[in-house]
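Thread: 5-phosphoarabinonic acid complex, take 2
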Amino acid sequence: MNHLTRILAALASAVSLFACSESDNSMKSSNFADLFENVDTTNMVKVDVKGCASFVDAAQYEKYVGKALTAFDTLVSGTGEGNDFLGWKTLPTETDENLIAACEAVRDDWKNRKVDLVVVIGIGGSYLGARCAIEALSHNFAKQLKDKGDAPEVVFAGNNLSEEYVSELMDLVAERNAACVVISKSGTTTEPAVAFRIVKAYLEEKYGRDEAAARIVAITDAKKGALKTLATQEGYRTFVVPDNVGGRFSVLTPVGLLPIVLAGFDVRAMLAGAAEMEKSLSVRSEKNPAVVYAAMRNLLYSEYGKKVEVLVSYNPKFQYLGEWWKQLYGESEGKDKKGIFPASVICTTDLHSMGQFIQDGDRVMFETVVNIEKSNRSVVIGTDPQNLDQLNYLAGSHVEHCNAMAQLGTKLAHIDGGVPQLEVSIEKIDEKNLGGLFYFFEYACGISAYVLGVNPFNQPGVEAYKKNMFALLNKPGYEAESAAIQARL
Ligand code: PA5
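Output below.
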């Protein structure tokens, strides 16, 4: 029934969109529908841009598909800016079974030590992928359920400088049998370094230096950086962040894989899903979903003034998909005074907060809805003889049917309100689909940034706040900056 509902919804959507476009004569070209027939629907991750049909000109769209294909060539040939950071492209097919086995060895060793809490310390690309996957794959109420399963609880730290956060983290660590994964590619980032110094000192005091060392794993550069030096000195187990993979593209390296394995999820399936997309996205075609997505978002941005992209999900488990995606696109594209500002909402929750603006505020945005075709769970709404809430008309319906109708109704309302809609669909939330989705967004990001004309793989802007913070904290080596900044205050 759920599946049938979806098909009916999709048909209703298509009919309504084209009817609307004809009646208000805003369809910019008669062959627009034909163009969109080209979109490939066989991939695990599908992109549908029909919800943009009434907003853009077909010839312009074709022009941007051409630009996206040129950018695709640049990405494939490795001839673009930042081409020393393309290692992520082949991670799905080249990840060694030994690496997964090494992650599982840590998991099994910590199980023997009865570890029930793993603190994952990292910031930006060094935690968002793992957090996204773990939150997407976990039971919504895992922490509250009596049966917590075999896997330890994974919590995240080192992604802020709040004293309350660190102090309250230590309340939890003190109650539990804890271990720690510290992740920093550079090995010198302040936020994770501060958190790690505190957690490390506590573990050493509680368990002794040797046992603490067995409860700490460092994921960092193969050769350089303070964390590498410390790990070698203390004898921590280490995993390497490859030189040619930047933080925000690192979810399929040990940066993401180890925490995901520790949380009890299947990274082989995740890599298999990503490998399926690695294969299908490597085909040069105007049907390639990464090409379609990159072309349409650049067209909306460059020709129609759509400066904000809102990533929308109707499942709260995807809140951190939004956070991961915002870093990926924000850091990759927001430079040289260019770039789409990435925002995210969870619906229907945020329809009661941000919905007003999206429907009716300044028309600066388009939406990309991450559509999940099937729910993993089933709950049917019952009949109430009194019907005081007047919901008996829904008796016998799945909750997810209401969610699907809210999604469709919102899509049509937002299109009517002037917000173009892209849709990125997966079948369901599981490791395989998530792996495919990670790879899809990474690949499309590389193409999209090259269409925009920026280097997708650097982040020079991130340094500005660090320089000021170090100056204000009187870090040795920043004496001149300290004097200069004090003079400004
Ligand atoms: O994408 C990036 O490169 C950044 O967001 C980094 O991941 C982030 O700054 C953390 O850096 P590091 O892993 O060196 O501590």
